[in-house]
Predict the structure.
Amino acid sequence: MILIKILLGLVIGLIFGYILTKTGITKYPRVMGMLRLKDFKILKFMMTAVISSLILFHIFGDLGWLELSPKPLSWGSLIGGLIFGTGMGLLGYCPGTLAARIGEGKKDAIIGLVGMAIGIFIYALLFKPINEIFLSGKVNGDIFQLIGVNKWIIIIPAAIIFSGIIYFVNKNFSDNKKIF
Amino acid sequence: MDNSKEWHWFTGGILVSLLSVATYFVFEALELKKYPFGVTAGFGYISALFGNLFGGLAENPVIQKYTKNILEFFLLIGLVIGGYAASKQSKTFSPENIPATWEKYHGKSLTKRYLVVLVGGILLGFGAPFAGGCTTGNILQGWAHLSLGSIVAGMSFFAAGIVTAKILYPNLGGENDTN
């Protein structure tokens, strides 16, 4: 089993890293360009992946082929999210692109990896108070259960809104303009 | 920045979603878990290895959880190899100490960049498990499930990232050429 896990991990990571680098979304000026709201290639990439997975996951879910597991909502989503976002702005990478960037030979990404491991370690040390204060009041993250309507009534408008975002940024911003 | 050999965002996006869905099926078939892949757990494995060096942390729930994440650790190694393979293949492999964009605005000082990166990394590492996942787990996967937690987390990522980027690069120059 351990061998399967190692191989599976390597294969998934390799494909994911290959796609990230090949699509050019690991580039520092692209990440910063997105955060400066000038270059939206990453957003378009992400939204395309989200729309496609959204539809596929829920079709397969309806067919009973897989079971979905929405993430719960807590204060951690907001506060942890803001801390993460600040880190992402300082680094110019998120964890996935950080790893792929190490492969591309960018040395600062290695320092980022060390920092990331330290950050998780600090989180582990502080987990008890964090859990009590921020994560204890979890709300079920399943939007469909919460609202209680047929899920396609939410999925289809969500897909349309995401497509609208892609359409808007694609129309108004170029992927290859020099920003910095 | 040479963008000519890049894949279109649509191609990349569709491929990532197919990878997500395929992974989900494989994980479920192998009864590993009922959620798609994330990247944070791989970094967590490194932290757990470090944490296990100290006897007192064996009971820590976060360390305990991440100790099991051998798959994610190798996923992380796979990501590095994938980045290497893709950049070699498209001949964009270019070792550098600091991103050129950074150098243009903040100078050549390695200490300055590495310090910012270290702090950024620590915040990223601290924030990811706190928020229930990183960009991969919360946006690529969590938004696709329309999870409430992920929608709030993903928006918080962008909100804080946009403010930080504005502080780092308040004025932008260059309009005509490509980066």
Remarks:
- Residues 3 and 9 of chain A are 10 Å apart (CA to CA).
- The mean pLDDT of chain A is 93.
- Chain A touches chain B through 126 residues (CB under 8 Å).
- Chain A is about 75% helix and 0% strand.
